[in-house]
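Quick note —
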Amino acid sequence: MKSLAAGLVIVSCGGMGFVIASSYAQRVHHLRELIRFLQVLESEIQFSRTTLPKLLAVQAPLFTGVVGRFLQVLNEGLEAGTGDSLAAIWEQGLAVLAENGLPQAVLEELHSCGAILGRSDAAEQSKHIKQLLYRLEQALTLAEQDREKHLRLWQYMGFCAGLLIVLLLI
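Predicted structure written out below.
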C-alpha cells in the first residue's frame, strides 16, 4: 500500500512538472500563431485591401487555440455592430491573450497596434504591422530560449519533488 501511495505521489508531482513545462511550449506556439496571423493581416492590408471584418470572418476559423479565440472575439465584436471602436474590441481580444500566458511586453505591443489599425492609410498600417512583427519575432526568440532552458528543468523538478516528498514521508 505504501509503494502504491509513493508511486502516486511521484507520478502526480511529475505530472505537475510536465504541466508547468508545457506552458513554455504553449507560449512559443501562441507567438508563432500570432505572427502568422499578423503576416496575413499585413499582406491583406497591403495587397488585397480587404476590410478587417471580412478578413476576420475568413481567417478566424483557420486559427485554433488562443489566437483563434482572440480572432473570434474580434470578429464577434465587429459583427455585433454595437458601435464600439476597433481599439475597444481589440482590448477585449487582448484580455483573452492575457489569460493565456503571453508576456506583458507582447501584450503592450499588441495594444499599441490595436490603437493604430483602421486609423490611417494602408501604407502606414503596413509599416506598423511590420514593426510589430519584428518585435514579436524577437519575443519568439526569447520564448524559444526560455523553453529550451526551462522545459527539462520543470519536467525533472516535478519528479524530483515527488521523490523528495516520498523520502520525507518514509
